[in-house]
Amino acid sequence: MLVSMDRHVQLRSFVLIADKGGFAPAAAVEGVTPVIMGRRLSALEDRLGVRLMHRSTRGLRLTEVGAEFLQRCRDTLRDFDDLEQSIAASRRAIAGRLVVSAPAGFGRRHVALHAPAFLEAYPGIELTFHLTDAVVDLTRDRVDIAIRIGPITESNVVVAKLHANQRLVCGSPDYLARAGVPTKPEDLLHHNCLTLAASSGQQRGWLFRRGDEIAALPVRGNLACSDGELLSQWMIRGLGLGWRSTWEVGGAIARGQLVSVLDDYAIGEYPIQALYLAQRYVPAKVHAFIEFLRGLYANPTYWNVD
């Protein structure tokens, strides 16, 4: 790496010395001493094994080889500058294909639903959505952004919080009137608990905070499914209790269709987050989509609308 950088510096120094007609004026442009400029030219000549400039008391003069090499250096450096500018512009450009994954229910209602508005703002983008409750691998599945809810276990990723979220145990007023209101997690063993299928990651049980620790409590019920929206409808119909995110049930709670219980044992923050691979240069389209979702979710009334 250092060798490549030294070569680049040597070439630029040679062109600058030729353009300015001497070591001193070239050194003034570079902010170094004339001696350093002389060393750079000598190092370049030593590496090439040719004399590029004649030195005399009257000044510097290009050799025949030096004159030919000077033009080729100009072309090379111009191409190098163009390449750098092109790459920098592509990083800044909000265009190209963008692949986004998200949990199926959340993705339908709160990610993919807003695609038209995002494309209107950034017409150069081509959006592809992978809506699945399975955990995707960003590298293997070639995903630019993964929307996740809850704890993140991957390494080598950057995590951007999109909005606050909590997991709450909820039931309809009708169900709680019939079955009673649980006052501690163990009471759930005597309730009909509506659960998501094993692929959702809830097979360990529902999580509760006990002091400084979080523990999983296995629960049972007569209904389970892989669709969180259907599960929430079952809860509203009074078929049992569910452990759901506030993004799913916030509106139903606000309308009185559901009531949260065991709030003192809630695990706290269970945020909605965006993940992307850790890399030196993050495409502008990734930042643009994340900020777009943040702006939507920050609206105080957004989550009260189903």
Plain-language structure description:
- This protein is α/β, with parallel strands linked by helices.
- It folds into three domains: 91 residues, Arc Repressor Mutant, subunit A, CATH 1.10.10.10; 103 residues, 3-Layer(aba) Sandwich (D-Maltodextrin-Binding Protein, domain 2), CATH 3.40.190; 99 residues, D-Maltodextrin-Binding Protein, domain 2 (3-Layer(aba) Sandwich).
- The protein has ten helices and 14 strands.
- The longest helix has 29 residues.
- The two termini are 55 Å apart.
- The relative contact order is 0.13.
Strand neighbour order, sheet with most strands: 4-3-5-14-6
The CATH topology name of the largest domain reads D-Maltodextrin-Binding Protein, domain 2
- Mean model confidence by pLDDT: 89
Question: What structural class do helix, strand and pairing data support?
Answer: alpha/beta
Helix % is: 40-55%
Annotated CATH homologous superfamily of the largest domain: Periplasmic binding protein-like II
Give the SSE string: HHHEEHEHHEEEEHEEEEHEHEEH
Number of domains: 3
> What's the N-to-C terminus distance?
55 Å
Shape label: rod-shaped
